[in-house]
Amino acid sequence: MRIRVLFFAAMFFLIKSGRAQTANPSQYKYIFTVAKDGSGDYKYIQDAIDAMRVYPLAPITLYIKNGVYNEKIELPANNTDVTFIGESVDKTIITFNDYSGRGKLNTFTSYTAKISGNRFVAENITFVNSAGPVGQAVALYVDADKAVFRNCRFLGNQDTIFAAGENARQYFSDCYIEGTTDFIFGPATTYFERCRIHCKTNSFITAANTPKDKKFGFVFRNCTITADTSVSQLYLGRPWRSYARTAFIECALPVCIAPAGWDNWSNPENEKTTYYAEYRNNGSETKQRAAWTHQLSDKEALQFSIENVLGTDSSWYRMIRSKAFEWPAKTKS
Questions:
Q1: What's the order of all strands across the beta sheet hosting 189-193?
Q2: With 80 as the cut, is the pLDDT of residue 150 above it?
Q3: Could you say which of 32, 118, 241, 323 would form a disulfide bridge with 209 (CB–CB 3.0 to 4.6 Å)?
Q4: Structural domain boundaries in the chain
């Protein structure tokens, strides 16, 4: 009898607790501020992440004041609907110096920031892997679905951005991304709009790993590709796996793009399965492009609209097209 009473008491407590969690969202904190000088809620970004309610009942916003945050951060998959807003892109910096081969680290654990919570937004933040030209060293590892990055910078060398998650969709607008080899890579469906992509060595910009059943991989639209003056032979991409899909649409390309434009990663069989495309790019001659790549017609280029690539789910589309967040006056130094 006593056991039954205790059982029903425990069930009553759990039910009541569950109702309280969903019925009283105001009891949780949804706005956080991180500041190196101690003027915010936390001095470290990871401490703020750890304090957030998982699967929140309302979106969470983290304001990050200007400063260099020398820390390796991770937003887990159960931390959904989180927005990071930096005070200014040039002065709000998250940096770390891990790299593949450092101890037991590999490419996929060398990140400075790992973002796994769906519906994540970042604005006005610089993400840096400061390890230098030592091999694979990821600045951003993002496998979140419906992730948005606006007016952010990503600084590194090899493997700067890992666009991960085979079923993930990600959007970068008005961002600056730099690197050396394969510095934008991964299996996600990712749309880059009005970004500047800067190449620091003779190498490859992209290394998509698009799953066989996905129609789109990486799409660059109205982006500007630049390179150091020492760069003389640059490739738009090579296939990390055999069904890589990448397109450059109405982009400004540097003259140092190799005549072939694309590389098969020393495997002619990849030419049968990859899909590499260009449309109305300028600055680079395309007459000698590799025969297995595509110069799109006007009709073919229509399929690369942002709606067609990322989908038209109403809430997701609003995230993409919404105006930038404003830095609130009360959080200013």
A1: 31-34, 60-64, 82-86, 121-123, 147-150, 169-173, 189-193, 218-221, 245-249, 275-279, 294-295
A2: yes
A3: 241
A4: 63-328
